Amino acid sequence: MPRALTRTSFHSASLVRVLADLSLLDAVEPGPAFAEKLGLWVDFTDAIALSAVHSAGTASPPGTRGEVAAGARMDLGKAFASVQAGLVNSIGRAQLELPAPEADAPSDPALDYEPYRRHYLAQQREFELKLRPLRTRAREVLGRSSARLRKLAALDAALDDILFEREGKLLLKLPSLLEKRFKQLRKTQQPANDWLPGFCQEMQTVLRAELDLRMQPVLGLIEACDQDSTNG
Predict the structure, then answer these.
(1) Would you state the torsion angle of the CA atoms of residues 222, 166, 161, 8, taken in this order, to the nearest 10 degrees?
(2) pTM of the predicted structure, to 2 decimals
């Protein structure tokens, strides 16, 4: 059965590589298998819920078809591309109307960084606002198709419920990691015009890597849908 690409840590090649390149995170060596890492986040009650979903029958609900209609697959792919493009463009507009720390002016580094923190958090809210409905829509499309895709949609919904809060807390650490980078550059490089544009580019790079991470579950559902159709 195809699996949704739900992540439980920063162990996404793109995001880890970006953070490691900025010296914000140690490089991660290949570690335990997906199931073992997932087990660190799933408690006994969650495991029972997942087992129940996995063991549930897959009888076709009224009005469902054996495969996803070509039009539904195409519409879902277009919706994915549109949301992705919109969010990437939103990140690209972030060469920012944010205040630069004034040269030679005494100030609090934490206060100087605050506009950037707010900006990053606003981007994260935008990701969430656009991607959760898209993921729900993908599950609905799969739920009207073959038995294995219906089960995949149910498992994705269960994993989303279990991991959503924990993954959200993990991703909320990213603005604080970038704050370390901001303070380091501010301390070691003057004036701000010399380093601030580069920092803004780095922030955009981290945002794009986070977006890639967040889009992977939806992409996994869409790819499973396409694979199911191809295999007939």
Answers:
(1) 40
(2) 0.81
